[in-house]
Amino acid sequence: xxxxxxxxxITLTGGEEALxxxxxxxxxxxxxICYDNDxxxxxxxxxxxxxxxxxxxxxxxITGFHEVCNNDxxxxxxxxxxxxxxxxxxxxxIKATPFYTPDPETEKQTxxxxxxxxxxxxxxNVKHMKQSNIQIVAVSDTTFTVPSSILLEKTRLxxxxxxxxxxxxxxxxxxxxxxxxxxxxxxxxxKEETIKENIRExxxxxxxxxxxxxxxxxxxxxxxxxxxxxxxxxxxxTVPMEYTAYSFGQRLEAAQKYLVxxxxxxxxxxxxxxxxxxxxxxxxxxxVSNFTVTDETKKQLDLFRNIPGSVTxxxxxxxxxxxxxxxxNGNNTLIQAIDFSYHTALQFNLGSFTDVRGYLxxxxxxxxxxxxSSTANTLRKEYGLGVFTSLAGNSATIAGLIGGSNKTPTGFxxxxxxxxxxxxxxxxxEEFGKCKQDVVSELTDIRSSNExxxxxxxxxxxxxxxxxxxxxxxxxxxxxxxxxxxxxPNGISVxxxxxGTAEDIARYDLILxxxxxxxxxxxxxxxxxxxxxxxxxxxxxxxxxxxxxxxxSISKDVGLYIMERANALNTEFDSHxxxxxxxxxxxxxxxxxxxxxxxxxxxxxxxxxxxTKEHVDYAEEYLRSIYDNQTFKLKQYVANERLYSTIDADxxxxxxxxxxKYPALVLQLEKTAVSSKNMxxxxxxxxxxxxxxxxxxLTKCLFIQYQGYDIVPTERxxxxxxxxxxxxxxSRVGEQ
Length: 736
What we know:
Elements: E1 31-33, H1 39-52, E2 59-61, H2 76-82, H3 87-96, H4 104-109, E3 113-114, H5 117-120, E4 130-154, E5 169-173, H6 192-202, E6 212-229, E7 242-248, E8 257-266, E9 274-283, H7 295-305, H8 311-326, H9 332-342, E10 347-350, E11 353-357, E12 361-366, H10 372-383, E13 387-390, H11 398-402, E14 403-408, E15 411-416, H12 418-421, E16 426-430, H13 437-449, E17 451-454, E18 461-464, E19 468-473, E20 477-478, E21 481-482, H14 491-499, H15 502-506, E22 510-514, H16 534-545, E23 552-554, H17 556-573, H18 584-598, E24 609-611, H19 613-627, H20 634-643, H21 649-661, H22 663-671, H23 677-684, H24 688-700, E25 704-707, E26 710-713, H25 715-721
Parallel strand pairs: 1-2, 3-4, 7-9, 12-19, 12-22, 13-16, 16-19, 23-24
Antiparallel strand pairs: 4-5, 4-6, 4-8, 4-15, 6-7, 8-9, 10-11, 14-15, 17-18, 20-21, 25-26
Helix pairs in contact: 7-16, 9-10, 9-18, 17-18, 17-19, 18-19, 21-22, 22-23
């Protein structure tokens, strides 16, 4: 009817909520929408106008003609036919209508339901557009190309059973409504002719019909991946799902997190298995990424900021409140070690050093029933962040931790492991003492580089891995029995049996060794302090986790003070096991930032964490407390080690005497890094009795150490030998 009046008119079939399939045709066009005069028509007009304003700013929603067509459901057919109006009459209404401004309320109504993947898989939700926060657990090297727009045109008459008239066109465009059609065009080893036949069938064209000209007006690349629900902590009372997903026009990266718009559909060629078709993906709206400072969050942060007293008094208060969460009188040092590790920023800047790793990497060794796991798990539940994984199970492999690449029928699939899946998050490792040395070394490499590297046939893939790590373990297990910590001479011995190399030990920021066996006596009258509200705890940790390096404020004076105190720690505790070493200033800074964040040290904007000397002092004192105690005995260990690395005049005289009496033995020790008793007996020619006497004196003078059956010359021996007079008169063994 409209065309008969000389108007370029288009009618959309499919109901008031229908949208045009080929929206690109409307780009920058001037559009007037004339829908029926009823509620469904008015709603549909707004829905269509909101959609078309994505392609053109010149959209008008014409409702003025309803003054004429004022009865329910009347339309422009009635306007022209029933009421006898003219083209000029309608054009006048069009000119009088302003251009459409998108309606936020209507736009809100067109947003898709947010749900988890299990909910999306329910029968009533399958085939409907949904939105979910997901994580990519694996990506495939296989990609596909599908049409984004197709035009089929009948060019000649071909028979009595033609479904199209000559000159007729049928169109198909890739939209949210048609995305499921692409499953007939990819990932099933289709031949080109089969795809064309499938497209004809989708557009209701007979298979036998000829003279159909098919044109592909555009294409889109489709990428394949495996996805699962995004959980910020271990999921409870949920059903985690994993799906094969196809993303249109956007490659999804392994281990990354996205908010996706998608449909779940049964795959017509894969046994009706549900697959995910993703039409849009953007950064996941998790609670950390979405955190903003508001009046409400300021009030919750003030609960911590306004606790009275010094930093030490504030932390003691907060520790007692955590005991209220635990429900028992837990170990203060343990609680603080786990809580500080939770409350760390990912990166910080200090002077010319930028984007330095800011999160603490913590190892906690303790006897059974000291509350390691229960404390960590209670805090995990309260904060709603972090995941547990056991290093004694399937994830105690390199592939489980970082990921791997597997061959599939259509190519190679790269799957991310536990660590990259928790990029920017936190992982709590249980049963650390049961993992293999290659796993320990891999964790060391990850801490150094903040990334994981997965070897593939087509080359290595690198995934980011800024991950806070807390390792919990008992002491070393021998013959199935856990060795009591009290039987070790010091904490270094405990850690060396678990971690192995000095390099791997040095990478930890906090190492806590607890010999306490836990409270065997229960105090029925103990009353815990009242914890902070859960919302306040969750606000504080998300505030810290969301801070950028630029929002960690460390003044020049504080930075110089950190360096001064780090040097003091090195002077007092430096040994070949570098618990401090050249990284001391970084370890001290990381802990000081955690302390500042924990007590909410900030300015009036609440955007920055302000680190002061008081936080540095507390961090230094905490480090001293965990290493300089009756269990770890680091000071005694360092003092003893320095005896083996220094020598005085008396020591040189003792070695000179040994050289005079046992020259061949001393020369053999000087030539080798490691010897055995048999080797020394052969080289020196000493009897067994004389050799034992010589070795006993070398041991007593700290010139050798035993490592199992190996005899190792000490640094003290090396220094002393360089000062020995080798031209002295050598006496025979046994001479007085």
